[in-house]
Amino acid sequence: MGVFGGTFDPIHFGHLRTAFEMLQALRFDEVRFMPCGNPPHRGEPFADAELRLAMVLAATEGQAGFVVDDRELLRDGPSYSVDTLSALRSEFPLRPLALIIGMDAFLNLTKWHQWREILQLAHIVVAHRPGWRAPDMGPLGTLLADRGTHRIGDLHQARSGHIYIHDVTQLEISSTEIRELIAAGRDPRFLMPDAVRAVIEKSGCYRKPDTAEIQ
Ligand code: ATP
């Protein structure tokens, strides 16, 4: 099972294509989208939890293998990946778990709460993201040398412990840019599914109070 955490503020094709390519290429039985409630590494999300969940549900609806899990949104306090993975591990004691993160997130791994525990609970699968390179020195360089694998089979044979870097189609889309675009009164069409765009349009979120309609 791939576990794809994120703020998803909003979810976009960079997330969805990455998840889909991993689902297929890494032969995951499912990719579980896990919107985070209160991200410990960044400021408050712009859209509230309910809206971000609605966007993730709209984006993934009808796609076989895509599952949405709202447990982090229901939990009070910071959303630590290690807690989420512990809960999943208790629920699925025998299933391999793989935390999916972009290279930008992986480069910050050592700042995560109990980051070393994460590999005891799950594999980490890293998606290449435009503009970011894999670390070759420091604690993450060492970790990659120790735990990195190029064999997809390792992700299925062991339940946790490997790091796999996967080349996905590079889509230079970010939630930040989408929010800025909408705030400037422009249309995020073709950066995200229309169903997500519809949720954004209806709620009016990300829009500056003085912009009447997106163009
Ligand atoms: P923001 O611009 O607000 O920081 P984001 O676009 O990076 O948002 P997040 O919800 O923070 O989106 O990302 C969740 C996960 O998806 C992270 O691990 C991130 O690295 C990864 N990710 C985001 N955008 C892409 C992309 N275009 N290609 C591959 N991975 C991505």
TrEMBL record:
One Pfam family from the record: CTP_transf_like
Assigned keywords, A-Z: ATP-binding, NAD, Nucleotide-binding, Nucleotidyltransferase, Pyridine nucleotide biosynthesis, Transferase
Any one Gene Ontology BP term: NAD+ biosynthetic process
Pathways involved: Cofactor biosynthesis; NAD(+) biosynthesis; deamido-NAD(+) from nicotinate D-ribonucleotide: step 1/1
Residue span(s) of domain Cytidyltransferase-like: 3-180
A GO molecular-function descriptor: nicotinate-nucleotide adenylyltransferase activity
Enzyme class, spelled out: transferase
Physiological role: Catalyzes the reversible adenylation of nicotinate mononucleotide (NaMN) to nicotinic acid adenine dinucleotide (NaAD).
HAMAP family, per database record: NaMN_adenylyltr (MF_00244)
Protein name: Probable nicotinate-nucleotide adenylyltransferase
Species assigned in the record: Woeseia oceani
Origin organism lineage: Bacteria, Pseudomonadati, Pseudomonadota, Gammaproteobacteria, Woeseiales
Gene: nadD
